[in-house]
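Bench notes, afternoon.
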Amino acid sequence: TRRRIPVRATAYLRETRRPAEGASALTRPLLRLLQRLPGGSFLFGERSRDWVIPDYVASPPEESNIYTLGGIQKEAPHVFAPCALPESEQPLSLKYLNSWLKNALKILLGFVPAFLTFFWTKDWWVLAWGGAFIWFAITGVRNIIQSVLGSGGLHRSPLVRWKDYVSWERVADSLLYTGFSVPLLDWLVKTLILDQSLGINTSTSPTELYAFMALANGLYLMSHNLFRGLPRTAAFANLFRSVLSIPLAVGLNWLAGEFLLEAGMDPAEAAGVLQKWAAIISKAASDTVAAVIEGLADRDQNVRMRQWDYMGKIEQIFRVYAKLELLFPRQDVLRMLESPKEFLSTIASEGRDFDKIVAVNALDLLYFWWYQPRAKSVLRRCLREMTQEERKVFLLSQYVLLEAKEISQLFLDGLVGKDFSKALAFYLDYSRPYLEQLQELALRCAPEGLGGTVDGKPRPLPG
């Protein structure tokens, strides 16, 4: 049984609020301003909770609230009884559902209210039958653009397809919630409240129309983001995104109106067409702004992750280099690195697995370069911040990848498990192009010259 210690502690819940972190460069100034308003730190800041124990006091065992951990249970608990326990009658959770089926159900659930709203409220067959598809296409394309933009855009790795950067679960969630925004924006806000109750439409005041629709859309986005448990900064940034979409929506409305007038429509007929398309125009403007803002936010997130990856690996490389200098005080470790074969055989003779550590670090960096988003730009920044000697150590440590026999043996010995064929083929096919591109990058980052040799001249890779 658990024992009470004759000590009592009083714990207090401490709540700390601090300025929000992780916002993009566009939304950071706005959030900083909002946090200065009364109650702004509560709404727009980040909150963390922890428990504080200021002191411990002696107390009788019966008043103590501190128990020991461990000990021997004298009586077996009921759950370990030999008899069979009844099967649980609780239904299986939806979280165990196949991910593709789950995403399809989310999309279908959002598509139903969107389609019914357009079908019942529009008399033109294009919007009645195709409005929901247009609405979903805007949202889907926006999610894809922001994911690709945040992961490198046209400068992404040739080994990674654009769809590998897209989170399809994120797309499904967006389509689910955007489907329920159709009856809110198109029917309730645009038709019932603004047009029929207040007389605000594309003919009377397009600016007010798109401003109210943007505000309603922003509040809806903020509410479902908070409901989904997303960071408050991201949720409240949707209000900022909605404000930016107002002039864009007004501009799109004007361009569409000019096009209809040039096509021969009279002003009244053109205004009627624009009124039917107003919700879609507002949606297109909002998602265009979102693609840019959230794409930049995704880029910043990818950059932070790559900085964390590279800082950890570079620190390991320099730590191993320092240990090798202590292990071989009479040898120039930097010159040893220039000959990968000799270097690996020398440090392997010590039997401390330094050769495997160096090789694994190089393989990790090879994977970062070809498969991780924003890896090349982050490594370029890291190389520029290094001293010339640090760049030499980093670059020369990667030349162990030239020793195909030794590196291949690591895969055969189970470095990545039994199914190593794809990983081994990737290493054999792309290690040399990686080293060539890395050497060119290092030369650009070091104006005095750095190609992997001690004298700073480019080093041709052996054939």
